[in-house]
Amino acid sequence: MNTQTVRRAAMATFAVFAINGFVFASWAARIPAVTRILELTSGEMGLLLLSIAAGSVIALPLAGTVVARKGTATSIRLGGFTAALGGLVVATALGLVSVPLTAAGLFLFGVGIGLWDVSQNIEGADVERHLGRTIMPQFHAGFSGGAFVGALVGAGLSSIHVGLPAHLFAIVALVSVAMVFVPSHFLPSTTPAPAGAVMSPEVPGGKAPARGRTAWAESRTLLVGLVVLGAALTEGAANDWIAKATVDGLGATESEGAIMFAVFVASMTAFRFFGGKFIDNYGRVPVLYGSLGAALVGLVLFVVAPNVWLAGLGAVLWGAGAALGFPMGMSAAADDPARAAARVSVVSTIGYVAFLAGPPLLGFLGDHFTVRWALLAIGVAIIASILTAPAAKPLPQPVSGGAAPRTGSPAPEQAERG
């Protein structure tokens, strides 16, 4: 495949990650406003957020099969348009001050985001393999950068009292236009695999179908999923609660809470842009240890800090530590290109259960201990991820004269590190 095609695909993949982050942050940065509009407690808001989790938990395990059948471009379009429909429903529901309708819209939003996320990670792994160097963290930096912009936009619109429904309608228009044009620049797809199947390297010729669900029985895949679980919960909890924890715990304004969220995302974005070089130089496992350790320290500092400035320093460390765990997990799941779709789907499902379902559970704890102190529960998951980090060590790459299948894997030289 020629270099220009791969570079164009890399730019398109970066763009869909960035748009995904912008869309998610446009919602997350204004959760305090949603809580106020619908007159909900932290626990009730946590229950409402479970609607997103429910939609994604349904979509994520099926995403590998959808990608295998339809390819990443079509799958991302399907996810993007579904998320946009969910945004329309949420905007309408907030205008009507309807909690049930908001929950229905968030469910659709979760379905769309789940399918979109698995598809973009599979495409990112393909591009990474074709480029021959670590680039997945930069794609996730695109997500974080988009989230940073979305958070700033949310803070700005909140400060000038622009209604959240109008904000969401504009986001829907952006997503709809992007889904038409951007995925057309992805890497060319090969013939889709049979329903629910991936190419099995264990069978001579590598052409026998193996059902995607078999990846759930692989110990390494599940352990990589546990690594991602801690990293995803760390990131997801900040996305959903750092703004509200700042407002409620430190007496800050809603705009200042959104800025704290932006500080977290800015730190995460910066480390994702430059993290690929650390991974190539030192390997996945050592970088995972350092990242998860920094996340734990930053989290604790944010919670115990007596003022906004020290909490901001904690947010910087927290964001830096959360930066690389998820993308390294996606790369680890896609080490074998023949099994990438099924394994990325499994690891994404585990990670996104934590990313989306964990924060609402923190909301329930927040009713008893305040949201800020409830965040300390994330430390348990971070420690579990540290203990299972060696599972992400790259797999040995097979030596073959044939072309690799079109489902993505890190560059061969990465297999010697970690």
Automatic annotation (TrEMBL):
Record flagged with keyword Transmembrane: yes
Q: Which residues form the Major facilitator superfamily (MFS) profile domain?
A: 9-397
Principal place where this protein is found? Answer: membrane
Please report the record's description of how this protein sits within the membrane: Multi-pass membrane protein
Q: InterPro entries in the record, alphabetically?
A: MFS, MFS_dom, MFS_trans_sf, MFS_Transporter
Note the CDD domains from the entry: MFS_MosC_like
Region (Disordered) residue ranges read 394-418
Top-rank taxon: Bacteria
Pfam families, per the entry:
MFS_1 (PF07690)
Where it sits in the cell: the answer is: Cell membrane
Q: List the SUPFAM superfamilies hit by this protein, alphabetically.
A: MFS general substrate transporter
Q: Where is the signal peptide?
A: none
Keywords on record = Membrane, Transmembrane, Transmembrane helix
Q: Which Gene3D superfamilies does this one have?
A: MFS general substrate transporter like domains
Ranges that cross the membrane: 12-33, 45-68, 75-95, 101-118, 139-158, 164-182, 221-238, 258-275, 287-309, 315-334, 346-365, 371-392
* Keyword Membrane among record annotations: yes
The protein in question is named: MFS transporter
Q: Tell me which species this is from.
A: Arthrobacter silviterrae
Q: What is the lineage of its organism?
A: Bacteria, Bacillati, Actinomycetota, Actinomycetes, Micrococcales
